[in-house]
Amino acid sequence: MNSQVGRALWAVTGAAGAFAAVAAGWQVLGDVGPEQFAFAGVSALIGGALTWFQADGPRRPSVSAHPVPRELPRDIADFTGRGPELSELDNLLHARGRSTGPLVAISGRGGLGKTTLAVRAAQRVAADFPDGQLFTNLRGYDATPAEPTEVLGSFLRSLGTDPHAIPEAQQDREQLLRTLTAGRRLLIVLDNANGPGQVRPLLPGGPGSAVVVTSRVPLSSIEGAHPIVLGLLQPGEAVELLGRVAGSDRVADDPGEATRLVALCGHLPLAVRIAGARLAERPDLGVAALAERLADERHRLDHLEIGDLDVRATFMISYRALSDEQQRAFRLLGRFPGPDFAAWPLAALMGVAPRDAERHLDALVAAQLLDPLRPDETGATRYRFHDLLRALAAEQPEPEADAAAGRLLGAYLALAAEAEDRFQPGELRKTGSHPRHEIEAGHRDRLLRDPVAWFIAELPNIAPCVRFAHERQLWDAAWELAHIAAPFFEMLAAWDDWDTALGLALDAARQSGNRRAESITLFDAGALYRYQGRPDEAATAYEEALAGYEASGDRHGVAAVLLGQGIVHRNRGAWDLAARSLTAAAEQLAAAGDRRLAAQALRSLAVVRRGQGRLDEAIASFRQAREEFHRLGDRRAEAFAWRGLAQALLDNGVPDAAAEAFGRSLELTRELHDRRGEARALQGLGRVEAALGTSSAALRRFAQAREIAEETHDQALNGELDNDIVAVSRA
Description:
Layout lengths: L1 H28 L4 H23 L26 H11 L9 E5 L6 H12 L7 E5 L10 H11 L11 H12 L5 E7 L2 H4 L10 E6 L9 E5 L5 H12 L1 H6 L1 H10 L4 H13 L5 H9 L9 E2 L2 E2 H10 L3 H10 L9 H8 L3 H13 L4 E5 L5 E4 L2 H9 L5 H23 L17 H7 L3 H21 L3 H17 L3 H18 L2 H17 L3 H18 L2 H17 L3 H17 L3 H17 L3 H18 L2 H17 L3 H17 L3 H18 L2 H17 L3 H16 L1
Parallel strand pairs: 1-4, 1-5, 2-3, 3-4
Antiparallel strand pairs: 6-7, 8-9
């Protein structure tokens, strides 16, 4: 330290001496002006200071003459797909004339090949950056992510800065990086960033350099960043990648199973690569055999690990980065039984308000653990898991799983029951004892503004939820959800879903020993068989339901079965049997206070009267039933009554009135999204046109009805339309 002080004094003394000499010259010679005197003095002081700095003062950053770093990792030979993304990257990285260099942010979940894509793109354009390429793994999701200060030091060394001359402070390092890169053409690849805060300090200055960043989360908040969101491989690309890793002959020998295998890998590049590596190291393991192992979702992730490649471990990095509540949301959603969901099921699973569930969903989407879908028919955004992420979520231990399942089913029961009340006012529904879980009133009203739209959105989840209840032996939830959903299943012609739900519901009722629940489910089964044109099975189901209702003394149930049996007789053309059964049903249902089913019995009796040729009685009964449905607010049943009235009016030789009634039925069914009802109304309007002699208009109506009949798999209507078209053609 004394030596430094001495050298400093010496330097200052020398400067003072030089200054004095200049002053003496001015006094003696008189030929040095004031400006020259001041300039000389300042120069002397600067010279002294430089002497001190050079002798023992702080060292200036010493930079060698433009070293050229070449730090890009090796490009892989079996790179597959990503053609559009590579073209976009080429165009962006070749951009010229910008005030700042291009910045491209590649985002997507783990296992999609973000690093592989970034390296491939960087290698393709490396020649355009003659001053070199820098690369670093920011370890964004490791336990100890790379600090910007650490990375800046590495970059400065790569650019030729003397390690001893690198500043300590991060801000100073940032400034030095911008200084050193300002006049160079560099390509910088920042891999595996955890967010903008890790990236901003590493950005170079000047327009000559370009940056490519990869991250699991979008980096849209970085100014000027161009986002590229990476998705899954196309099926053909995934099969190609499998063949490149496993051997093209293995794939060519069994292309069908290869397609199945990559589908079970979810077309995720990492998973496909692992599957290919497994096949490569096991020549005795066939593609079909590996696909069979992956078919078991409970153990699928166990087979997607080889060496240092591990799908589970890759996904767990993102999971561990979540907060405790977000992790809980992820685990509980892994138990959801359907293919996709809105926010309210998560609210029920977690026991929180829908707005809190939406916040957790946003976090899972941002973490690339969940995929957002388009808004559903109610306007609510829906979400879906990648299959492998669903498997990961489902295997995480969740102590509250049973309670969450009960809440979820309780929410479905509550919403479905209210949807049915709004859809079919006046319904006397038979209920079970599973506790309801109510959704916040404002959110519930938004969901059920159009109850049919809600059910259309939730249709893919209803049968899986019935199975979910059955698997957990929540018997009442299983049979009641199937029962509440029955009118929606029927309206949407969702025969397979309805059949699946009823099978599970009937077994649940029998497993619990609940004879009443068994009768209710058998009654619904009779309706399904009736709509499917299976009268014998319908009659058997009604007889079994009747026995159960009589044994339990359920007079309302007995009357409802009489209605079902009367419709079966009607469909068989047994008019007298149908009339007796339906007349008794109408009387008993009215006595039981069930105005809706009583009106339905009256409408069915009107169909019988029409079949018997008693048209005036039929028209009167249709009008009476229509008025009752209108008073109840049951628009769908009212549409049915309008259609029956229209057909009776047409049979009675009043085509204009019939056309008006069919038109009213068409209007209501379209408002209700009732495609089958819409097709029947169109058929009726075609019959009116045929009666009026306008054959071309009739055929157009029949063609419209045919399109819907094929869409809804309504074979009975298709058969009727065949007869209608033949009749018009012969006329």
